[in-house]
Amino acid sequence: MSEAAPADAPAPAGIGELLRNRGFTGLMTYRLLAMLSYQIVAVTVGWHVYELTRDAFALGLIGLAEVLPYFCFALFAGYAVDHLPRRKLGMAACIGLLATTLTLAGVASGVLPAGTSTFGTLTIYAAIAVNGVVRAFLAPVYMSLFARVLKREQFVRGAGVSSVVMQSGLVLGPAAGGLLVAWGGKSAAYLVAAAFAAAAAIAVITIRVTEPPLPAERAPIFKSIGEGLNFVFRTQVVLGAQALDMFSVLFGGAVALLPAFISEILHYGPEALGLLRAAPAVGAVLMGVYLARRPLQRHAGRVLLIAVAGFGLSIIGFALSRELWVSALMLMLSGMCDGVSVVLRSTILQLATPDHLRGRVSSINGIFIGSSNELGAFESGVAARLLGLVPSVIFGGCMTLAVVGATAKLAPKLRRLDLRDLH
User: Fold this and answer.
1) How many C-beta neighbours within 10 Å does residue 11 have?
2) Tell me: the pLDDT tens digits for 250-267?
3) Which ranges of 7-154 would DSSP assign to H, the alpha helix?
4) pTM above 0.90, yes or no
5) Does the record carry Cytoplasm as a key word (predicted)?
6) Is the pLDDT reported for residue 5 higher than 60?
C-alpha cells in the first residue's frame, strides 16, 4: 500500500483523515481535472454539432462515435492497467485527451481546414472517437490507484468523497463550458479544456502512491481478460449493480437531448445548457456530501433499487416540464438519486474485487457503466427522431422503472445486500 497505516491500525476518525492522505488528495485532483476537461468538451461539442446540423439525431451520433471505440479498447485497457505502471498509463491517457481537444479547437477556430462543412462535422466525430479510446484508460487507472491509497475500512467513506469530487466536476465543467461558449466562443472553451487535460497529466504522474510490483510473467492477454469477465459474471452483486445502472441510464438519460430541449421547448441559449447540464451534478454533490459524512451500510441493495427508481421518476418529470427552473429541479433530483447509486456501486466494486483484478474488472464496469451514457445518447437521438422529444424521454423514464423491477427479481443477492457482508 502507499502511505496508509498498517492493516491492524485503528479505523480513521472520518473525512479529515482521508484529506490528510496525500496519495488520496492527489488522486482526487487527477480525477477532478480530467473530469473538468472531459465535461467542458462534452458541452461544447454538443453545441458545436447542433449549430452545424440543427438535428437531434446528430447529437445522438456524438455518443455513438465515442462508445464504439471505447467498447473496442476497454478490455485491453484493463489488461494494461493490471500489467503496466498505472500512473504512466494515466498520464498517457491525459495527453491523448489534450491532443483531441486541441484538434477540436482547431476545427472551431478554422485553423484546421474543416470549416462548417460536412467534413468539419466528420472531423469532430473522429476526434470524439479518439476520445473514446483515451477514456477507456482513465477509469481503470483511477479505480486501481484508489485501492492503493486507502485501507479497506476507508473505502465506503472514500467513495463518498470521490463522488463529491466527481460530481463537482460535473457541476463546474458543464457550467464553465456553457459560459465559455456563450462569452468566449467554442475555441476558447476547447482551449480551457486542453489546459485542464495537461494539468491532469501532471497530477496523475505525481500521485504519492506505491504501485504493486509488475508481474514477472504476463498471462496471455485473452486468458487474462477472460479471468476478469468470469469474476464479474459469477459475482451476482457486482453484475447486478452494473447491469442496473447500464440499462437505467441507457433508457433514462436525457442529457444528450438538452440542446434540442433548450432550443425547441424551453427557448433559451447556451448559458441554459450549462445550467441544466450541471443540475444533476448539484444534486449528486449534495448527496455525496451526506453519504461521505454518514456512509450507508445496512440495506444497501434495497436503497440502490429505490434510488434508481427515483431517477426514472425524475426524468419523467423533466420531460413534462415547460419551465427552466422546474426542469433544473427535476434534473437535480435525478442527480441526487444517481449520487446514491454511484457511491453504492463503486463501494460494492471496490470491496468485492481482488487487487490483482482491479484494472480488468474496472474496465468491464466501464463497459457497463461508462458506455451507458454514450449508448443512451444514441438511443435518445433515435427515440427523439421516431417519437419526438418529449415522448422519447417519458418512454425512457418508464423503461428505467421497468429495469428496477427486473433487477429486483433477477438479482436477489443484490436486493438483500448489506455492505457489511463484503468487508
Assistant:
1) 11
2) 777 677 788 888 878 888
3) 15-19, 22-53, 56-83, 86-109, 118-149
4) no
5) no
6) no
